[in-house]
Structure prediction request, 203 residues.
Amino acid sequence: MSAPQHEEDDLVPTTTPGYKPGAAKSVDEYAKLDAEDESLARWKASLGIVPGAATSGSGPKVTILSLELASPTLPAGKHLVMNLQDHAQIASLKKNPITIKEGVEFNVRINFKVNHGIISGVRYIQVVKRSGIKVDKMEQMLGSYGPHPKGEAYVKNFDPEESPSGMLARSGTYQVRSRVVDDDGEVFADWEWSFKIGKEWQW
Prediction:
């Protein structure tokens, strides 16, 4: 069953009036631009934009591996990670909410792999609802990347935020819709999960 139109509208990336994405270039083309600028070349290499990197291939340009909620208040040695390659775990998270500790700082962390080509304008969008009413929306930019020179995954840490607190915040379950999408509207990941606010972390 498809989502209602208003839900889809919430998950559309914000656009800047008058902005149009430039023509797509290959990794090699980006790598050779301003090749004489050493500092720029080092910066591009850190993004996987180097001559000879994977420029074409089948399948999605990006694979979103996991989403993590990171916080210094988590129990020592514990990590709250959603493995997006584990469909059974994702299905479970929709029905069995995790508990986020109230009134603490945490941030969303995404692990992803660029399979081929250059990605640009890729964003993480998260819409939170309680009792069917939207209570929060987050939109964060991943940035522009090429395939990692060593074939490794990238990690993107988003800005810290504070979880709500108080009796009202602790009542009910929050339903979350998460999506990773680029400027062209190509969706790389789209999933649902749920959480509660409580006295301690629990999952």
